[in-house]
Amino acid sequence: MLTQPLADALVAAEKIIRDAPHVRSEQDVVEGLDYLAGSLRAAISSAWSYDRDFPYFIRSATPYTKVGLDNPDTLYFSARIREDAEYVVTGRRGETADLSFQILNGDYTPADVPDSLNAFDDRDVEINPDGTFELRFGPPKPDAGPNYFALGSRASMLLVREVWSDWTARPGTIAIQRVDGIGTAPQPADEAKLAKRFNAAAKSLVGQLNTFLQFPEWFYLKLPVNTMTEPRLTPGGLATQYSSAGHYELADDEALIVTVPASDAPYQGFQLGSMWYISLDFINHQTSLTAHQAHRDPDGLLRFVISAKDPGLANWVETTGHARGYLQIRWQRTSREFTAADGPTVEKVPFASLPQALPHYEQARVTPGEWRARIAARQQAVANRMLG
For the whole model, what pTM was predicted? Predict the structure, then answer.
């Protein structure tokens, strides 16, 4: 059967979910199976878009295909490419905090992070006054001129990130074509090509699950619980992206206070993730905050309160029933080195002691009506962004 590899991979993937080392409850399994469903959609989408001669951008890590502690503030676009071809990327710069480009030389695997052959943001791009731009990617060329970027050996994927600080900002547009294929069409699919795609989807499904169960071991779980690292350049990430990582474990009567300076970087965001290494529900719950969305205390600090119970504070970050999970702060479009002074401090306190533990507690309070308005604004912003 042509579809047998994918059917076998789905069975193997369910076993990976059920046997995951962090599973403690039936709810963990239910969330894992939901994650599996999204991973299956992503694997099929990726396999059916795997055409380096006639590429197009696909949306990666959507609210329905989460992966790799996806950033709630980011739209991810990826296209498959080959190192010996030339591609033209056209678009319009939106109003978002950051627009960045990254060339990868492979896929994430359970043993490795792909090298970033080139990573830059739109500060390195000549953009027209109306916001439109045209970039070329291809083999190295002498005197190629502005907006031409060499792919490098083993280039296999172009990843574009559009990053929001203000969720109401206008998005941009992006498209890609292989230059020598413009105006032509690919050969129609046959059973051999479909067999390759089903095999690719099967390999991607199992590989992705194994890979991103390993990521926390590499970057998070060896850290002491309820702590976060100093800012560091993101492994395998962008040249101007710093991050601070950690993991938490809290009882219902405990809270975590994460305090960090409001940054001079155009983008600064904080989020929680589940033990499946994906974002929590950021549409209907406040499980993430950007510096734009967060309440800033009079001393210039952002104080995020992570807890199961509602403290009635603007910067409450909801655990949504997750007593354990991951903590992440990102800074993007940076123009200087970030140090410990830019990073967070973390304090675990009894939930009942929050009024005494927070120096500007009264100024940070919100009413139930104000909280509901915050959630409504998130829902509307994501709905608008999904149509962009």
Answer: 0.93
